[in-house]
Each structure stands twice: as structure tokens, then as C-alpha cells.
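Researcher: Let's do a round of design. I'm pasting the C-alpha cells now; please hold your answer until I've finished.
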């Protein structure tokens, strides 16, 4: 079985237009259902076994809340098989590159390469933020019905000033796009210039794998990682 089923140039062009328009697009058709099931099962297993509860706010993102349980890249390498193998796949990099219309690369900062996040209590949310690198591919392993939250909200074409994030102002001035998701979906987001959050859940459980990819100019540029380092730090150490 091929791990990745590339899109035709026409489909990739449509998907790219969606990324330009709303910052993200569902690209589940790039992967067969057995592969998406395997990634989902591993994420659910690792979140259950290793997830660490977080309840944080960051000045760099206007004190938006992060209420969640998560699993680090190091833990996934140690105890996972499918997720690290997928991330290493050249076919995956090619598929993402063909959709976004530029080459993408494994994230130079290893801890940000792939992480698992679980929202599991009413009010849990991955609050408004930008990511440190250009693109994320997010695999949805568990997700409540959109009526119970857990959908993604996005504002593309926005820049992250870590000293003055100005999120309230952006929210006042912008149209907020909404991406409803179902179990088994995979979506792609332009994460460095899209302000985004996961709408708080009211019930149910939402578990995802986030795989991050860098743009060419991010490979040598110095990038700081304050929010990611704090959000996935080792309890008692970070
Ligand atoms: O949970 C999601 O769908 C998005 C997660 C996210 O934005 C992140 O991990 O940076
Ligand atoms: Fe993000």
C-alpha cells in the first residue's frame, strides 16, 4: 500500500487556494483510511498512556489559554512507530510541498516535529496562537461533534509579533474562518501567518497529532520557541 496518494495538480491548486483564503484545508484524501486509522490508534494509545495535563497562558500570545493534555516528540519517538515513520516519509514531504506550492522540510527544531494534544474536559482549548514554523499537518484521531466545539478557527495573513501580539485587535478587525472536522480527517495549515485556535470543547474528547514542517527560509533563520518549550516541557523541569 502506498503511504501517500498524491493529489492531481488541479486538486492541489484548489487546496492551495483554500489555504490562501482561510489558512487551512482538509487534505484527508492524501492518505488511505487504514493509514489514518493507524496514526489515530497510536495517538489515542499514547495520549492515554503518557499525556501530561497543562493549564497555561502565554504573554507572547496575549495570555490565550492552553488547557489540554499532551505528549512530547521524545515520548512519541520512544513509544510510537507509525507517527515517527510517517514524519520521515519523503512521500509525505512531497505531498505537502505539492499542495502548498513550495518545498517543505522537517522542522529543524526536533521537539516541534510532532506532538499529540488531547482536549478532554469541558472548556479545554488550544487558545489563539501562531506556530513557530510555516506549516502543520494535523491528524484528527478523536473529535466531538462541531456542536460541542473542537472545530478550528483561523485568520490567515496575520503576523506574530511576540512582543506585541495584538490578538484582541486582530479578532476585532478580521473575519474568523471556521473549519469543522470529523474523526479521521487530516488538515493542512499555514501556521506562521495564520492566527488560529481550537474552539473550547463542551463535551467529548479531541485527540490530534500535529506534524510541523519548515519553509526554506526557516531552516537557517533563528527562531525562538518560548511557547512550544513551555507547553511541552517536562513537568518539574521546564
Ligand atoms: O488541535 C489542532 O487542531 C491544532 C493544534 C495547533 O494549533 C498546534 O498544535 O499548534
Ligand atoms: Fe498551532
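Researcher: That's everything. Go ahead.
Model: Designed sequence:
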Amino acid at each position: 500500500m502506498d503511504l501517500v496518494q498524491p493529489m492531481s495538480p488541479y486538486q492541489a491548486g484548489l487546496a492551495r487556494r483554500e489555504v490562501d483564503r482561510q489558512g487551512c484545508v482538509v487534505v484527508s484524501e492524501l492518505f488511505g483510511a487504514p493509514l489514518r486509522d493507524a496514526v489515530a490508534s497510536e495517538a489515542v494509545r499514547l495520549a492515554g498512556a503518557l499525556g501530561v495535563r497543562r493549564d497555561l497562558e502565554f504573554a507572547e500570545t496575549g495570555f490565550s489559554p492552553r488547557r489540554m493534555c499532551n505528549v512530547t516528540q521524545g515520548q512519541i519517538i520512544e513509544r510510537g512507530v507509525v507517527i515517527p515513520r510517517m514524519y520521515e516519509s519523503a512521500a509525505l514531504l512531497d505531498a505537502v510541498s505539492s499542495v502548498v506550492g513550495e518545498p517543505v522540510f522537517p522542522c529543524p527544531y526536533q521537539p516541534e516535529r510532532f506532538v499529540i494534544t488531547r482536549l478532554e474536559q469541558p472548556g479545554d482549548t488550544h487558545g489563539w496562537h501562531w506556530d513557530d514554523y510555516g506549516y502543520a499537518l494535523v491528524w484528527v484521531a478523536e473529535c466531538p461533534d462541531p456542536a460541542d466545539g473542537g472545530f478550528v478557527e483561523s485568520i490567515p495573513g496575520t503576523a506574530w509579533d511576540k512582543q506585541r501580539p495584538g490578538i484582541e485587535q486582530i479578532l476585532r478587525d478580521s473575519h474568523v474562518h471556521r473549519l469543522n472536522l470529523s474523526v479521521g480527517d487530516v488538515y493542512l495549515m499555514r501556521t506562521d501567518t495564520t492566527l488560529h485556535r481550537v474552539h473550547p470543547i463542551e463535551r467529548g474528547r479531541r485527540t490530534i497529532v500535529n506534524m510541523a514542517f519548515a519553509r526554506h527560509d526557516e531552516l537557517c533563520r533563528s527562531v525562538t520557541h518560548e511557547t512550544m518549550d513551555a507547553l511541552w516541557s517536562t513537568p518539574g523541569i521546564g
